[in-house]
Amino acid sequence: MIQKKLLTLCLFLLPASALAGGGTGVQEGLLDINGASIHYVSQGSGTPMLLLHGYPLSGDLFARNRDALANAGYQVITIDHRGYGKSTAPTTDTGSLQTYAKDALAVLDRLNIPRAIIGGMSMGGPITFEMYREAPERFIGMILIDTLANPAGIVEQQLWKGMAQKAVTYGPQSLAPELLKDMLTGQTRMNRPGDAKTLTGIVSQASVAGDVAGAMVLANRPDSLPTLKTIRVPTLILEGLEDTVYPPEFSLKMQQNIPNAKLVIIPGAAHAAIFEKASVANAAIIDWARTVR
User: Fold this and answer.
1) Which CATH superfamily is domain 15-289 in?
2) Residue 205 CB contacts under 8 Å (≥ 6 apart), including other chains
3) 77 - beta bridge partners?
4) Banded model confidence at residue 293, pLDDT cuts 50, 70, 90
5) pLDDT digits (tens, 9 = 90+) for 229-243
6) What share of the chain in percent tops pLDDT 90?
7) How far apart are CA 116 and CA 137, in angstroms?
8) Mean pLDDT in the chain?
9) Range list of H helices, the chain
10) Tens digit of each residue's pLDDT (9 = 90 or more) over 9-36
11) Torsion angle, CA of 50/54/56/61, rounded to 10 degrees?
12) Which among 146, 173, 175, 176 has a CA at the least distance from the CA of 162?
C-alpha cells in the first residue's frame, strides 16, 4: 500500500510532457510564452510540422491528423492559441495577429526547432502569413487549410464582430450553433452527430476574451495578397469543396499567386475539412510533404 501511494505521488509530480510521452512519442505541456501559458502537443519524430487551428477552436482540431502524420515520419506540433483550449492569456494581451504569430515562433524556439513545415486552418492562415512575413527562414514548407489571403469585407467584418458580442453576452458555447453549420456538411451533421459534438466541445473550451480577440483578428486582418508572390517555399492548399466560409474560389486565387503551389480540393467536406475528411487530408499532406526538401 505504501509503495502504491509513493508511485501515485511520483506520477503526480511528473510534468505533463513526461506522462504523455511514456512510450507513445507524444509530449504535451504548457509553456510560458510572451506572458501567456501556451498548451502544446508534439507527436512523432522527423521533419517538424506545426499546425495552427482556426477560430474559435484549439489544437484538438488536429486530433485525427496527428497519428497519421507522425506515423509517416513527421514531428507534428499543435498549439492552442492564447485564450483557446488549455492556453491562457494575460489581460494585457488577450491576442492579436502579431501576438499569435510570435507565440507560435516562440514555441518552435522552446522546442529547439529552427525550421518547420508550418500550416494554418482558417484564422491559422493569416497567422501563418504573418509568421512568414516575420521569419521566412523558419519555413521548410507551408500548408494553407480552408483559409484565404484577402482582407475581410464590410459584411464579414460585421459577422466577426457579432460573434464577439455573442460570446460576451451568452458565453463561448453559444458560438457552436453559429459555426457548425459551416464547419461540417449537412450530411456529416445528420449522419455523424459525434463530429458535431466533438467540435462543440472544442468551441466551448475557449475563453470569452479569446473569442473576442480572435474575432477582431479576423475582422481586421491585413491584406495578405501581396505576401503570396513572396512565398518561396513549397506550398500545399487544402480546401473543402463545400466550404461556405472561404469557398474554393479563394483557394484557387491563392494557388495562382503562390509560385508552384499545389491545390487539393476535398469533396464532401466543408470548412473543417481537415477534421471532417481527416483521412483524405492526411493522405494529401503526406503525398505533398514527401516532395518537400
Assistant:
1) Alpha/Beta hydrolase fold, catalytic domain (3.40.50.1820)
2) 58, 84, 85, 86, 172
3) 42, 50
4) confident
5) 999 999 999 999 999
6) 91
7) 10
8) 92
9) 2-13, 16-20, 63-71, 97-110, 124-134, 154-170, 175-183, 186-191, 193-204, 208-219, 225-228, 248-257, 273-276, 278-289
10) 333 333 443 333 333 489 999 999 999 9
11) -60
12) 175
| Strands 116-121, 47-52: pairing kind | parallel
The cell numbers describing 80, all together, are: 492552442
Which triple of cell numbers denotes residue 291? Answer: 516532395
- Name every residue whose Cβ is closer than 8 Å to that of residue 148 and which is 6 or more positions away in sequence: 125, 246, 250, 251, 253, 254
What does residue 145 show for φ and ψ, rounded to 5 degrees? -120, 115
Domain boundaries, the chain: 15-289
| HSE-up of residue 72 (Cα within 13 Å, Cβ side) | 18
Residue 17: what pLDDT?
39
Cα distance from N-terminal residue to C-terminal residue, the chain = 54
pTM: 0.91
Nearby residues of 154 by Cβ (< 8 Å), 6 or more positions away: none
User: What pLDDT is stored for residue 21 in this prediction?
Assistant: 36
